[in-house]
């Protein structure tokens, strides 16, 4: 579900360990499940191993009520773990410009008090237009924030089908996304992609926020795409269809019956 050896958060030794682990998996695993077609391609070209494509699903919902003190459709949302490969540094810089026009809501943390978390804290404390909510474990609260966002910024760059992106789509969030082959596979051919540069991020988000018609159309399109390609029903059906392939060469696992 990702290319761990490309993540900036890991040191050189950790990246080597992940790369060796991937090589061993390609040699020893009975079956490989890949969460995106791009991951299938990478495993095929780099490790000469075919995989089964099964993505993640999203959970749609009727209109959810915000429990936080924000106005529906008025704010820009980012949800991410605070690591460089999620475009957090670039978004924080862009947020300074965005906040001159619209409220900015940030959800996530690094899990410890590192430099990125301190930057988010400083920005939120110095700018009344920026709110940092930390990590949110309440799904209904998080889903309401996605569903009521004016724009959701998705900056993830390393990995296949990202669960947060699929969930935001299922809830009809208008999205601006970092331009990666993974995000393009999930979102499709829409004019929502930006390079990981603060000015580009801020400009695209502000432009979209000022266009209610574009946001409404995008919300409908993304929700339909999620309902077509990224449902838990189809995910479960694909796993059920793959399981017999594994049983061809192995005894059944009683606990799975």
Report on the structure:
This protein is α/β, with parallel strands linked by helices and 257 residues long. It has helices spanning 12-28, 37-47, 88-98, 115-126, 139-147, 163-170, 181-187, 198-209, 212-229, 232-247; strands spanning 33-34, 52-53, 76-79, 104-107, 130-134, 151-154, 175-178, 193-194. It has a 6-stranded parallel sheet with strand order 5-4-3-6-7-8, with helices on both faces. A two-stranded parallel sheet has the order 1-2. The radius of gyration is 20 Å and the shape is globular. Residues 252-257 have low confidence and may be disordered.
Q: Count of helical segments?
A: 10
Number of strands: 8
Question: What is the approximate shape?
Answer: globular
Spatial strand arrangement across the major sheet: 5-4-3-6-7-8
**Average pLDDT score:** 92
- How large, in whole angstroms, is the Cα Rg? 20 Å
Tell me the structural class: alpha/beta
Order of helices and strands: HEHEEHEHEHEHEHEHHH
The main sheet comes to:
6 strands, parallel
Q: How much of the polypeptide forms β-strand, as a percent range?
A: 5-15%
The percent of residues in helical segments reads: 40-55%
Distance between the termini: 26 Å
Residue stretches low in confidence (pLDDT < 50, at least 5 long) are 252-257
